[in-house]
Backbone:
C-alpha cells in the first residue's frame, strides 16, 4: 500500500439488511469469522436508514440480487 494511504479506520462499509433476516445473520456471522478491513455499519432497510447512509457516503449502490 501507498505510504500516503489513509489509515483503514477511515474506510467504512455500509451493509443494508432487513432486521432479523437470514441475510443479516449470514453477514454478521461471516464478519465474525473473517477479517474485514475498515469499519462496518449495518443499517436497516425497513426504516430507510440505508438511504441516509448512502446520502452520507462517497458512493451508494442498491443491489437487489
Residues:
Amino acid at each position: 500500500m501507498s505510504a500516503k494511504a489513509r489509515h483503514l479506520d477511515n474506510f467504512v462499509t455500509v451493509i443494508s439488511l432487513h432486521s432479523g433476516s437470514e441475510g443479516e445473520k449470514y453477514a454478521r456471522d461471516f464478519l465474525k469469522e473473517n477479517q474485514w478491513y475498515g469499519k462496518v455499519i449495518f443499517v436497516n432497510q425497513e426504516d430507510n436508514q440505508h438511504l441516509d447512509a448512502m446520502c452520507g457516503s462517497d458512493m451508494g449502490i442498491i443491489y437487489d440480487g
About this structure: The first strand starts at residue 12 and ends at 17. Residues 8-55 form one domain.
